[in-house]
């Protein structure tokens, strides 16, 4: 079987006949670009709360998916979408109240300077639009990103996503900086290194006659290896870029919507003031809704000379889903819960490091955690094979996580915000058991 999944080639000898049939059909119909997770890919048929169910009815604790962040098939979202789709679903070229009510509430979660919102259908589109705005406002083309960033799939944004692999050659207008890797660079060094890298990137762009337009950063540096970094560590580098006229685009597709704990938005931890913020994934709990929030000065400069229409972006059903997500975050106190359960998880995983030599570092912000596996704590050599073993062993135990980073040796743990302490305990125990078998 030629299929390569997220971690390794599917182990054909361990697949059931029905799994093999589905994989072959998928390859035939969708082609090789689509990758599956796990040596024994999971056939999901139903989701409810923190659980996914396979075709046998077995349940899996979901500590990976941040789209259905408030819980799979959350009844409030399902009901809101159902209600709205019975009444009206069109586009944004008619007067409608729902989009405005939602826009007001969404903007209410930001500081007053971020006072405009525009809607898209995906995080990629949001980043693409933010990049267009930045280029329009600055007259530049150059972009600064981190070394193993991922920002999406459009032609312009894939070029800003080196984590897509070596086939993605960085174009001349892109410069990379090191992500704030406190484990490998030292906690006290990351802020000055980040600022120095940004300085060097701007200088180098200019030296090549390229005017910089934007610095685009995922606030939790997920694909770089889940690197929250010390709070505030990117502030100096970002301020320096803004002083040079670049727009700072905070990509909140991963850390947004309460994921990082008490803060609704991940960038808040870093004490920075974005010009544009891009949103996606958990925004509609599964309904495709995404967008940008920005300073009116910037957004209006673009909008005055450029018409914007996105057929599905901001449609009434998507806005109803987005509104329900905001309501649930508020009413179920998910910011506080993400902080509380996230701290509990961080403690539990940190305690595991006392027993498992392979755990080099445990880090996180709220409900986004990384456990970096190394074969040797002194050299910090990445334990990629072992990370793969742990991810696959946990899947067999019924707990879903993934791996991230340039070496894929960082356990990427991103539980649904609906987790309780009991779920967190199950997760820690599953990591413990899986680590015992990794070698
Ligand atoms: N930015 C980041 C940081 C992401 O992780 C992703 C998706 N993984 C995107 C943007 C793109 O979002 P989408 O897949 O909705 O286009």
UniProtKB/TrEMBL annotation:
PROSITE patterns: AA_TRANSFER_CLASS_3. Keywords: Aminotransferase, Pyridoxal phosphate, Transferase. Its cofactor is pyridoxal 5'-phosphate. CDD domains: OAT_like. SUPFAM superfamilies: PLP-dependent transferases. It comes from the Bacteria. InterPro entries: Aminotrans_3, Aminotrans_3_PPA_site, PyrdxlP-dep_Trfase, PyrdxlP-dep_Trfase_major, PyrdxlP-dep_Trfase_small. One of its GO terms (molecular function) is transaminase activity. Belongs to the class-III pyridoxal-phosphate-dependent aminotransferase family. This is Aminotransferase class III-fold pyridoxal phosphate-dependent enzyme. It comes from Pseudomonas qingdaonensis.
